[in-house]
Amino acid sequence: MNKVILTLLAAVFILSGCKDLIDPAMENNRQLDPDAYHPSDARFPYGILLNGYTRIPTNSWSFSDVATDDAVTNDQTNVFLKMALGQWTSSNDPLSQWTNSYAAIQYLNITLAEVDKVRWAADEAISKLFATRIKGEAYGLRGMFLYYLLQAHAGVAESGSLLGVPILLEPQDANADFNKPRATFEECIKQVYKDLDTAVALLPLDYENISAAQIPPKYGSITAEQYNRVFGAAFRGLFTARIAKAIKAKAALLAASPAYGTGNGAAWANAANYAAEVLNLKGGLGALAANGLTWYSSAAEIAGLADGANPPEILWRNNYGDNRDLEQANFPPTLFGNGRINPTQNLVNAFPMANGLPISDPASGYDPAAPYAGRDPRLKLFVLVNGGTAGPNNTVINTAADGPTNDALNKVETSTRTGYYLRKLLRQDVNLNPTSANNQRHYKPHIRYTEIFLIYAEAANEAWGPTGRGENSFSAYDVIKAIRNRAGVGSTNGDPYLEAAKASKEAMRDLVRNERRLELCFEGFRFWDLRRWKARLNEPAMGVRIRNGNHSVIPVEDRVYQDYMTYGPIPYMEKLKYGALQQNRGWQ
């Protein structure tokens, strides 16, 4: 997101006085002490809106994968580790969005209540355009935060009803009635859609400088200068109509999924069509980014990014920054890292052979004595296996139990617990050696296009079968074929496994879910996916012990979940304070 618009404004508007930071300046956009706020001043209301941006949760880097069968951690204080081991309660919920999202919604409701009272610029036309944009941002962000609340807290109450969360559409002051009941899940989803559709109606598809001939008719008779002043490239990274459409697809997938949907084709078709709308804006199936597997390490591409600009794989992202935090946490010990996130044998087994066949298939060519040979190329891109290389000097890493370095299995506190280290997300050109340490540029995606492709594949298969297209120009089969071809899977033999799967919705479902697991691993999706699929949460985390060259699978960590944990809890203190709130079944 544009550093001037978000980072500096969020800090300066809210925390201190400053000069105008926007060029051209919003004439009436100056800091005001909140205690003396008057709606004729624009700076404080806009600062309130920016609170919504600062509360956007980022899936990547949270590593909730540690709470699943995909990863463990050697950090014994990790909240997701404790959660996986049975310490997940309604008063200890690392995944809760209640406080964060409702705080954001409160700020956004204040913004919507005040926006029409403010003169945003001396030019009346520009002032109206700013009001339009800010309304669109606020509605879009509010819909997004309601989606996050549903993902974390919707569920089946003791009454048997599928409930969402309380819907708050007005600012709450000290005299407000906070004892609100939960709306139904369906009512909440409809509100999410309504807010996002309103955002689409008010906002441009993207923030770019355009000519007079390109001005959308919805903004009336204005000049290109006026349009660009409000909707131009300086505001890249703020909420757009494109982002709203993508979040609608995400919400529709949640609503259609087994834990929340009725399983009817209409709900799945909605999710597929919403995703297709986003993809078609990008160019359809042909827009699958060639470097979608390495977006985080494409050094030249990342170095050349302008503020707020997105590379082909990214629909929406946060600011980039120069640091080495991820590598410090996750490089193996011999590269001066802490080896925190350890992929499991479970995940490694999910990667097929390069010929596309699962390793369990007798025809796959899998060799247990050489388990990493001939595999899906994504395996060694995402997971640092024994004998793999890492770091700026392509150092060979030995994770064997009898290995001579601290990279060996369970050798020291920072060693791997599974026989594997994380490789995905890490810049291998980072050097952690204290004598020559360096930083590299990183950014975190809010939404990747590969996620939208996978939403389409999952929903289209459920709605129309593997090769059905509805009213769209591509099928679930087409998407999965493109994704596997990009990865180098089945590209030399016609991918017989995929070809067999296209004859069965059930077989394609399994394949789509596995591709989602692989493509989005370590980006914070696995736990939510298992829950919305009503899949097994208790799969034990496994690892590998290599000794004298022999590989043996070992148990590493149990997963302790109850059946009712398909749905997250309403926070205990909220339930204690407000009697109108029903708790989800099974939670205290």
TrEMBL record:
InterPro entries according to UniProt: SusD-like_N, SusD_RagB_dom, TPR-like_helical_dom_sf
Predominant cellular place of this UniProt entry's protein? membrane
Q: Per its UniProt record, what Pfam families does this chain match?
A: SusD-like_3 (PF14322), SusD_RagB (PF07980)
Record-annotated RagB/SusD domain positions = 327-587
Gene3D superfamilies hit by this protein = 1.25.40.390
Residue ranges occupied by any SusD-like N-terminal domain in the UniProt entry: 62-210
Compartments reported by the entry: Cell outer membrane
What keywords tag this UniProt record? Cell outer membrane, Membrane, Signal
Q: Which domain of life is it from?
A: Bacteria
GO annotation, cellular component aspect: cell outer membrane
What the record says about family reads:
Belongs to the SusD family.
Q: What is this protein called?
A: Putative outer membrane starch-binding protein
User: Can you name the source organism?
Assistant: Chitinophaga japonensis (Flexibacter japonensis)
